[in-house]
Amino acid sequence: MPVLLNRKNIRNKLVKKIEEISDQDVFQCYQCGNCTSGCPVVDYMDIPPNQVMRLTQLGAAEKILKSETIWICATCLQCSSRCPKGIDVAKVMEAFRAINLRNRDGILKPDKSEIEDIDELPPIALVSVFRKITG
Amino acid sequence: MNLPYFPGCTLKTDARHFEDSAMKVMEKLGSPLVEMEDWICCGTVFSMTSDDLMLQLAAIRNLLRAERQNLNELVLLCSMCYNTLKRAHQFITEDEENLQKVNDLMYKEEVEYTGSVEVIHLLNVLKDRISFETIGEKVENSLKDLEIGAYYGCLLLRPEEMAIDTFEDPDIIEDLLSVAGAETIKFPYRLECCGAYQTVNNKDVTISRTYEILSSARKAGCQAVVTSCPLCAFNLDQRQKETAQEYPDFKKIPIFYFTELLALALGCGWDADWNQLHYVDPLPVLKERELI
Q1: CA nearest neighbour of A21 among A104, A101, A92
Q2: pLDDT tens digits for range B109-156
Q3: Of A100, B154, B277, B286, which cross-links A105 as Cys (Cβ 3.0–4.6 Å)?
Q4: A75–B48: do the CB atoms touch at under 8 Å?
């Protein structure tokens, strides 16, 4: 995944927005990889959590905004509970989702045709998925 | 003493056996659960954004209504409601400005919320107020060394400030089921996420989680797994159908709410209506141990 490094991109507008929404300092991350090694759904992600942190530091946050990763993360908080630097990684993931959702760019429409077994799903599953990935 | 209780949506639908069994247990222990009035959906997931107060309102409105009904605490059964309400409580009590902003947004309410309602999980009530020792003395129908794995999932334990017990190595459900006569087994995946709401649009994720978690419980020797979360219960129980189709070596295992087994142990009996709410038949393992 080639990323063009440019000083101008560091802490660009999008990165500042991510830091503001998540209330986290992404530059605290020193790439130990604990978040990725503990993530139970990393196999399904296109960018692992530690790379999300690194790309954000490098100003390449645009890539993450369009990634699968942010929608696969189900906020289990394993990464946040294990970060030795105290970064709430799950909040950073949520900030990326929030920016998309605020632009009405979620990935699921609350529509019967989109959800295969809607009649069998409990309310708790539907309410949470609509809150997390429907914009 | 009556305990004010917040059910949440799924305890009135797919997880009726969770509510029903908990009601019976608490009646038996002399602290009946009394449902608060006028509750609404808590929102199920706590918003992790720092700047959007609207997403906190569903949870906080419930706390406001509880306060108006002169309740100083709410007892929770569902792990997701517990986490959402408790984090909402923390959100407004740790920062006065947040409380004020939220009250401003809820300007149509007759009174302002002051932040006085504490949120507590039933497991903490059982441990700290009633005590496991007392519960042990009231056991009429021991669980006869049934090998049970307690699955905590995420929201009873994380973030650490919300944890009902030591967040990296909890014992609370194991200790409870031990006094009820079960043999509890700490299996490796007991604190791992079940995939949560990915079950709606990324079923594959939850199927692989269910396979990993339950195979790990099986290998450790569990005959049954208990939980406190209706979403975990759906993923671990109902999704076993797809898991068995996807993984030929998968062996089904019954999933219970911890209150169902506690109800059995305390002599409240097993309600036949609960059977249809389980996907994996819970009866064979209970009959084999002559528990029913």
Answers
A1: A92
A2: 999 999 999 999 999 999 999 999 999 999 999 999 999 999 999 999
A3: A100
A4: yes
Reported residue count of chain A is 135
Chain B residues within an 8 Å CB radius of A120: 238
How far A123 CA lies from chain B's nearest CA (Å)?
Answer: 6
**Across the interface, which of A21, A90, A125 has its CB nearest the CB of B51?**
A21
Closest CB from B10, B159, B198 relative to A124: B10
Is CATH 3.40.50.12780 the right assignment for the domain spanning A9-103? no
Cβ contact B197:A129 at 8 Å: yes
How many contacts (CB atoms, under 8 Å) link A and B? 129
Inter-chain contact B192–A23, Cβ cutoff 8 Å? no
The tokens describing A121, both together, are: 């799903």
The mean per-residue pLDDT over the stretch A51-66 comes to 96
Q: For residue B225, report the phi and psi dihedrals to the nearest 5 degrees.
A: -125, 140
Q: Does the beta-carbon distance from A132 to B197 stay under 8 Å?
A: yes
Check CB contact under 8 Å for B201 and A107. Answer: yes
Q: ipTM, 2 decimals?
A: 0.95
Are residues A125 and B15, on separate chains, in Cβ contact within 8 Å? Answer: no
Q: Which residue of B has its CA nearest to A130?
A: B197
User: Which domains can be identified in chain B, with CATH numbers?
Assistant: 3-122 (1.20.1050.140), 131-288 (3.40.50.11810)
**Is the pLDDT at A1 greater than 80, yes or no?**
no
- The answer to whether the Cα torsion of A110, A112, A117, A121 is positive or negative is positive
Please check the confidence at residue A68 and state whether its pLDDT lies above 90: yes
The model carries a pTM of 0.96
Find, in chain A, the residue whose alpha carbon is nearest to that of B193: A76
pLDDT confidence band for A3 (50 / 70 / 90): confident
Using an 8 Å Cβ cutoff, are B252 and B244 in contact?
yes
